[in-house]
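Researcher: Quick one. two chains, 507 residues in total.
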Amino acid sequence: MALSVSEVLPVDARLTRRQIWSVGGGKGGIGKSLLAASVGWQLARMGRRVVLVDADLGGANLHTCLGLAMPQRTLADFIQRRVSSIDDVVTETTVPGLRLVSGAGDLLSAANIKHLQKVRVMNQVRALDVDVVLIDLGAGTSYNILDFFLLSDVSILAVVPEPTSIENGYRFIKSALYRRMRAAAPTATVRRLVDAALDPKSPLGIRTPVDLLSRIEADEPESAQALRREVAAFQPRFVVNEIRDVADVAIGHQMVAACARHLGVRASYAGFVHHDDAVWLAVRRRRLFMADAPTSQAAEEIRQLTRGLVKGESLGSGY
Amino acid sequence: MEAGTEPPSGDPDHYGVLGLEPRASREQVERAYRFSLELYGEGSLATYSLLEPAEAEQQRARVRLAYEVLGDEQKRRVYDESHGFLPPDPAVLPFPSSAPTAPAAEIPSTLGGADLRKLREARGVSLRHIAAVTKIGVRFLEYIEEDRFEFLPAPVYLRGFLQEYARLVGIHPRRAADAYMSRLAGKK
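Model:
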C-alpha cells in the first residue's frame, strides 16, 4: 500500500519561536521603512506579537509610516541610558499586537553608536517578549547596519529595479558576507585575505567571495572549510520593491542567480511589490496603505510576501 | 565526446552554467537557457555591475555552448555518459533542486487539496511561483488546494491545471492529476 502524504512529509517549518527579522538595502529612498511597517502590520494581523525597531538612527521615520506622532521616548533614550530597559521605549500603535521602538530622530550622532552600546541594544532586542522583532535598518553599509542584518533570522534585502539600487544591493551583500567571514576567520592570514578582498586596490586581485574562498583554499584548506559554512549560512532574501513593469519581476530571479553563480551566495527571492499610487496617497495622509487601501495591489502583495516569509517560501528559480 | 562541446577546464559543467541539476527535464533546460541569455544580456541590470562586458560575453558564449549540448538529445546523452550523470528522470521532475522527491509509487490513489498543499509546502514552492510560471491564476490554485469544487473549471481544464501544478511541485503530473480527479469524482 502506498504511504500516506503525511507519512512521507516533514513537518513544515512554521514560526515557532521568537525571531529577529531585518530590512536592509544599502540605498536610501527605496521604501525600506514602508516595507518594514507594512510587513510588521501584516504579521500582527496574522496574530503575531511584533515589535518594529527603527534602527535608521540617522533618519528615523517609521512612526510616520504608521501614522503616529514622534513617540516621547526613543531608542536614543535607551542608548544614552536615560532609561534602563528597551521595554521602556516600546510604544503601542493603533494595531493590536504591533508595537514600535522609535528611532533616534533627535540624535544624529546615534548613527555612530559605539560597539558596547550596540551590544547592549542587541541583547535587549533579543530579550523582548514577542514573536517577531522587525528591524528597519538605515541606508548604507556601516558596521552597525551590517551587524543587525547578520544577527537576524530573516534578513530581507530590499531593492528597486534601478541600477544604483541593484549595485548597492550587491555591495551590501558582499560587505555583510565579508564582515561575517572576517569575524569567523580562524587565523591572522585569513583575516588579512578578507581585508584584501575589502580593498579594491589590493594587488591580490580578490574581487568576489568566490575568489576569496579559492585563495584561502590554496593557503589554508581547513580554514576554507570553516568559512564555506559561514557563506552557506548567509541567506539574504530579496524583495523587489516599486515594480512598474512586468519584466521587473524577473530582476529578483536574476539577482538570485547572479549571487549563486558569481558571488557564491545562496540568496532567495521572497517577493515583489508593485509601485502603487495607493501607497503614495496613504503616505500623504500619514496613514499606512495596509489600513488605508487594503484592496490595493501593493497591500495584497505585502500579504503574500509576509505569508511567504513566515513559511520560509520563496518564488523559486524563475525558470 | 565531440570536439568543441567540452567546457574549458576549471569551469562548472554545462548544467552548472545554466543553473540546473543533471537530471533536469528538457523543458527546464529550455527555460534555463532563455533565462541565462537574459541574465547575461547586454545592459542586464542584474549583472552589469558584477561582470565586465568581456566577462558577460564570455558567459553568453558558455551558455550557448551548454545549450548546444543539453538542448540536443543525442549530444546530451553522450555528455551525461561521459560525465557519469544519470539521464533525465521521466517520473520525477526535480524541482526545486533541493526538494525531496515523491516517486509515482508514493502518491496515494486519491489526493485532496490539503494533501497537495502539504506536498507543495514541503518543497518550498509558493503558489505565486506556480502562477507566475504557468499563468494559472493564484485564485484557481487556491480553489484547488481548498477543494472548492464549485469554483473549479471543467474537468478537461482542471486536469491540465493539476498536471502543471504537479510538475512544478516535483510530483508525477499524471498520477497526481488522476488522484485528485478520482477524489473529486467521489465527492460529486
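The CA atoms of residues 28 and 139 of chain A lie 5 Å apart.
Researcher: Thanks, that's what I needed.
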